[in-house]
Amino acid sequence: MWKLLISFLYLAAFAAAQTSTKKPSPWQTLKGDAPLVIANGGFSGLFPHSSSIAYAFALQTGLPNTILWCDVQLTSDGYGVCLPDLLLNNGSDTGDQFPNKKKTYLINGNRTTGWFSVDFTLSELSKVSLIQGVYSRTFQFDQNLFPVMTIQEVVKQVKPPGLWLNIQHAAFFDQHKLNIRSFVLSTSRSSIVNYISSPEVNFLKSIVARLKATPTKLVFRFLGKKDIEPSTNQTYDSLLKNLTFIKTFASGILVPKTYIWPVDPKLNLQPSTSVVIDAHKEGLKIYASDFANDVPLAYDFSYDPVDEYLKFIDNDNFSVDGVLSDFPITPSAAIDCYSHMDKNDSSPAKPLIITHEGASGDYPGCTDLAYKKAITDGADILDCPVQMTKDGLPFCLGSINLIDRTNAVQAYSTLTMDIPELNGAGIFSFNLTWKEIQDLKPQIFNPYAEEKLYRNQNNKNKGNLMLLSDFLGLAYNATSISGVVISIEEASFLAKQGLSVTDAVLDALSTNDYDNQTIKRVMIQSTNSAVLTKIKEKKNFEFVYEVDEVIRDALNSTMLDIKKFADAVVIKKKSVFSRNNIGFLIGTTDVVPKLKAFKLPVYVKLFQNEFFPQAWDFFSDARVELNSFVVGADIDGVITEFPRTANNYRRNRCLGLGTNTPPYMTPVEPGSLLTVVLPQPPAQAPSPVLSDSNVLEPPLPSVAVAPTTANTTTPALPPTNPRNGQSKLVLSVLVANLPLLLAAILSL
Ligand SMILES: *[C@@H]1O[C@H](CO)[C@@H](O)[C@H](O)[C@H]1NC(C)=O
Ligand SMILES: *[C@@H]1O[C@H](CO)[C@@H](O)[C@H](O)[C@H]1NC(C)=O
Ligand SMILES: *[C@@H]1O[C@H](CO)[C@@H](O)[C@H](O)[C@H]1NC(C)=O
Ligand SMILES: *[C@@H]1O[C@H](CO)[C@@H](O)[C@H](O)[C@H]1NC(C)=O
Ligand SMILES: *[C@@H]1O[C@H](CO)[C@@H](O)[C@H](O)[C@H]1NC(C)=O
Ligand SMILES: *[C@@H]1O[C@H](CO)[C@@H](O)[C@H](O)[C@H]1NC(C)=O
Ligand SMILES: *[C@@H]1O[C@H](CO)[C@@H](O)[C@H](O)[C@H]1NC(C)=O
Ligand SMILES: *[C@@H]1O[C@H](CO)[C@@H](O)[C@H](O)[C@H]1NC(C)=O
Ligand SMILES: *[C@@H]1O[C@H](CO)[C@@H](O)[C@H](O)[C@H]1NC(C)=O
Ligand SMILES: *[C@@H]1O[C@H](CO)[C@@H](O)[C@H](O)[C@H]1NC(C)=O
Ligand SMILES: *[C@@H]1O[C@H](CO)[C@@H](O)[C@H](O)[C@H]1NC(C)=O
């Protein structure tokens, strides 16, 4: 049975974090207060909406004054319970428990079929359990049988600092002879109810006089602009033009976020409306709803939900007074850690931000635009995955297969070849001259296209590919860039085709004055130790060894081997935090401590903003994930396609606070969330330990004089991973590390 308490530890941390500055308010809210975080059914992005654990977890991970939102439904015997929807089958297993109690009712003129609270006594609802109502979220907590709670139970068990009751269908209860008005009035006498919202004018009008002298505030909720408000028969759109009227019975309004920042069907953010300023002029507070981290956001936010919140609370012109969110940790961090950041502040050195094909989350990878964006976004190191043209020129592209990153299929399909060593069929860069490649259209890479999560389609073919030497020139001129990383793969294969990629790289570095200077770092990266060894024989750059398998540890002898040819190591995220096949973190591996014991800096790939590949533990928030790796696992650098997010993360004001670190900036504790999953999934075979044979490679073959045919099967050469690293098949997720909380909840 779940009992809930708020950990005193975290309350203490909150209190400390709050005693910061006392300057004039930076907030353009109605009264200059910081915006409120309103947790929609608790932390409903993770746990079942309205469950005890969702409510407790919202308080444990959010701002100390986080408000808990309860959608009130009345039972036939007049109890008020928190359930997300008038239809009980959305978010609970009522349908399974009571198959015969399905009914059809007229709701605002619509015939609606399902299970309704008005047909159940409270005692009947005690047989019902809360489940995840949003299909894209994890259903692994459904077996916990979290009970439906009355409002009094929420207050007693969770002790919220603030409570918000939403009455979505007041008239419906009246039609069923249930007096929602007197229920709400008596509840606000017996418990502290801070806010009552409803989309029905008459309901709010009927209680406003009785609540005048109480702390309870009434909020009129706007639905879709074309929807009809049942008591006035006006559309919500027309009511929006009549805020003076709204002010007669409410002190605030709650609007869908698109009322404030509309988004067009192509996911482009439109200019803001004047609704926040209008509401404030009328003396109304304004709250925005529909915030969730796990939905496609406007492209302008690059899948970074913190940026979305900041647009509503920290723009030049206004701030909303609160946000209704399924993931309250994210607005908590946005408000306390990321708002009003001084744009002139310099970035801390850690973590080192290394790009992956430039800012390829926003532009086609390795184009001039992707690199320029990375520079303005605050990257430290620009990367060039080097490929060779038929005419022997090195250029930057994320794949040796042009199909992965350009429109080569359209013009050069006749050049398609099947080369097992290079992962099968493709149009390969070494079959086209630079002139031909330059004329191709680069294409933005959409690693999660199957999930319909596209990257900025306005930019999908923008920018130009660059020769390595142009890339080096660009990086040299960019004063904020501290160095470059040149990654070399398929060197053995190319040598057999008569192309020496290592010589081409050395030439380009030399021509561009990189080989005898101290201004820019030069890192050479490969998964093939022979490449590093070969270049090291000629020039002493920094050498970075990439471990392309997922490992849990490495032998000491292997560490010593690596130190012979590398100065730093790149590992995969799953080699830092192990993860099971249902998307939860299992624990922390020994890999980072081992590398550090051998004084090898650790860079981790691949950081992306999209929520889909993440571990559930990171709450679909790319910055929670970054924090868990950087602070929780103490890695030295991140390899990212979204350098802006990484840079804004490392500049936030909640880092380095020691024991005063607020919970929303505390790393996730791998494995803690998994303890809540019922039934516990079977243990998985652990990842292997990196050993000498994984690391040592035969020397590169000498460069063939004439290209051999693609047909001749060449032996040797271990298979290398496709450049796009992440497996699309694995649903799961990444990692984060809130030092949990869950343990505290569980132990009660
Ligand atoms: C179920 O409720 C959630 C909110 O908890 C809502 O987002 C979703 O649209 C609802 N689903 C249906 C089928 O009504
Ligand atoms: C009634 O149903 C229609 C069609 O499903 C929908 O568009 C409309 O918004 C519904 N009206 C209300 C008040 O729910
Ligand atoms: C709203 O419209 C309906 C049908 O059009 C009508 O029956 C009802 O009386 C109207 N209510 C008000 C308050 O005007
Ligand atoms: C505002 O709404 C009220 C109630 O529907 C109506 O009486 C009044 O005329 C409206 N005012 C304007 C300017 O539309
Ligand atoms: C602020 O308002 C000005 C003037 O209306 C407008 O030009 C500017 O784009 C607005 N800024 C934001 C962030 O909305
Ligand atoms: C930031 O830098 C710009 C240009 O260097 C300067 O004009 C501005 O005053 C600075 N802002 C702050 C807050 O220091
Ligand atoms: C770098 O700067 C120099 C001097 O300003 C300029 O001549 C050169 O074209 C620049 N190179 C690139 C790649 O921008
Ligand atoms: C490298 O630069 C140093 C100082 O500028 C110079 O003394 C040295 O000769 C240079 N070495 C080469 C190989 O160019
Ligand atoms: C491996 O190296 C670590 C760190 O240098 C050391 O503590 C440990 O004892 C070594 N293990 C073995 C088996 O040598
Ligand atoms: C493509 O490259 C392969 C391997 O180097 C070579 O055998 C083949 O002749 C090339 N084809 C063309 C059209 O360049
Ligand atoms: C591969 O070999 C087969 C048979 O030896 C030959 O017919 C074919 O043309 C070759 N393909 C290429 C791309 O060289």
UniProtKB/TrEMBL annotation:
GO terms for biological process: glycerol metabolic process; lipid metabolic process. Its EC number is 3.1.4.46. Residues 704-715 have a biased composition (Low complexity). It comes from the Eukaryota. PROSITE patterns: GP_PDE. Residues 35-335, 351-650 form the GP-PDE domain. Residues 704-723 are annotated as: Disordered. It catalyses: a sn-glycero-3-phosphodiester + H2O = an alcohol + sn-glycerol 3-phosphate + H(+). Keywords: Glycerol metabolism, Glycoprotein, Hydrolase, Signal. Pfam families: GDPD. InterPro entries: GP_PDE_dom (IPR030395), PLC-like_Pdiesterase_TIM-brl (IPR017946). SUPFAM superfamilies: PLC-like phosphodiesterases. Gene3D superfamilies: Phosphatidylinositol (PI) phosphodiesterase. Residues 1-17 form the signal peptide. Transmembrane segments: none annotated. One of its GO terms (molecular function) is glycerophosphodiester phosphodiesterase activity. Belongs to the glycerophosphoryl diester phosphodiesterase family. This is glycerophosphodiester phosphodiesterase. It comes from Daucus carota subsp. sativus.
